[in-house]
Amino acid sequence: MSFFEELKRRKVFRVSATYAVVAWILMQIGEVTFPALNIPDWVMSTLVLFLLAGLPIAIIFAWIFDKTPDGIIKTESDTLIIDDNKKWYVKKRNYFTIIGIAFGFMIGIYGPNILNDNTNQNKITDGIQKLAILPFSNIRPNEETDFLGYALSDEIINRLGYLKSLIVRPATVVKKYREIDISPEDIGKELEVDLILTGSYLKDNDRLRLNTELMNISKNERVWTKSMTVNYSDIFAIQDSVAGSIINQLKGQISTEDQIKVPETISNPEAYELYLKAKAINRVVISDTERTIFLLQQSVDLDDKYAPAWTYLGEMYNQLANYGIDPWVNLDKAEKALIKSFDLNPNFESSYGIIISLFTDLNRIIEAYSYGIKGLRSYPKNPIIFDGLGYAFRYAGLLDESAEFYSKASSFLFDPERIVSAKLYETRGYLYSGNYIKSREMMNDVIKYSKEKEVKISSYHLFYDGIDYLYNNDQKNAFRRFDETYKIDPLQIFAQYGQIYKLLTLGQNQKALEFINKIEKINIHDGEQTYRFIQFYSQLGQKKKALEKMKLTIERGFFPYPYFVSDKFLDPIRSEPQFSELMKIIKAKHIEFKTLYESTMYLSSVSNISD
Q1: What radius of gyration, in Å, describes the C-alpha atoms of the chain?
Q2: Residue 435 covered by a domain
């Protein structure tokens, strides 16, 4: 008897076919039902591995054992061969095989549609809804009131942001739909939402009328329309009313964990209008930030009890300092504004990430870290806090942790622009640790993602893309990025940094020194920026100045020990005795902070829970 006939006699083919059909049906059922039941992806992967591992076991058992009327017995070599010459349609087992295959095909083809339909019908009560609130259109456009369209929708978004059972797309995502003609259905697909709120408004003297409409995109139907008119001084009433209507619509879906928080209020209507105007400014150049500060300062002068205005003012002063504009003065103003916000409302979520970055810049990294821990206790999925901690960890040289926290920040974001920013910061962790290949690979992926999502890379990030190319010895692309940055805004400090790197690489030291002397007149406060001058003077052969900048960098709180170890631009000064002494200080500060982090188990537990 041939081996093939022996396999057939021992029913190995029959068992294998039956096992394959059953396994395939189980995988089809899992693929369709697991997502609907919110079962983690790893369960499906485990099921597939289990089924694949079981196939050789089933074949072995089919070879060794046989099922008979007397039970399962070991197959003997002289077992009588059962007549297997019957027609295929006479054998009952073949019917079960055909039915099983047909059943599997039915599940694979129609199952997803059936479950999706049921899911869509039950979303209001059973699932988490996703909502986009589009900027409202001005029925009578004019420069004095156009800001309300974006500002009002942004404030309603903020009022709904506390709900765990409702995902609201941030204002930064929906702002691109201002004054463009696109159907709600197309927007719903782009933003991957179930509900869309649109509206129009008209300001007539001291009266404001707002018309809103809530659409269920998944059902292609209008849920409700709402119109109301209030005194302009009572603009909070409109925001509260619209937010309340949405909450009432989702009552069956609101989680018991959701606590209805009373929104921040401001008593002076004029102060609030100034705050809304400031938030509506699309900041592109430094003058936009200065105009935003001007409006916010007027707002808090009229009413100094509104925490969001103080937080936003602190953020803008900090941004202005990072641009090199009176850095120490503006940093002091930023700190005072943020402390004022915390005094008014210690639980205001947006303040945490900003103050973490600010205290890191001020060489108060322990304070920054403590604010991060406190913030994560209350808001374990806040991307701004993770972003701020990623920044602090980079300064302290915890580069793997920095990349991890930036990765967490991007995982909690939906706005492609903010995702790109977080991922670009994540690459710097790899760059500073000397993993240039990994950094370049990830940078290329981020650039590709930004093109797909039509996100414009800022000149600041273009500069760091150039730095990444430079460390990877790709001078051509590095110079291209540096020139692009300089073309966008030649006055920006990072644009000038790029030109210095380019000139030093080309050996044009005198021209590079002209740029350096110009920037030296700016009172730079940032330790990471001060580090650049260690590299510049090191490459120029001015070792004394390079070591002075190295000492200043430490004093300003930038001590990423692995970066100092791996950075090739510091090679000309490594043999200096003072360099070795300063490296001991850097290593000690790095180990001190690392020990603090590792001993603070609570932060690690929050990090894991947030996954």
Answers
A1: 31
A2: no
